[in-house]
Amino acid sequence: MTPMNSLGLIEMTSIASGMQAADIMLKTSNVELILSRTICSGKYMTLIGGEVAAVQTAVDAAVQTVGFAVIDHFVIPNVHKSIFPALAGHNNIPMLEALGIVESFSVASLIEAADAAVKSARVELIEVRLAMALGGKAFFTITGEVAAVRSAVDAGARVVEEKGLLVNKVVIPQPRKELLSEMI
Question: Whole-prediction pTM value?
Answer without folding.
Answer: 0.83
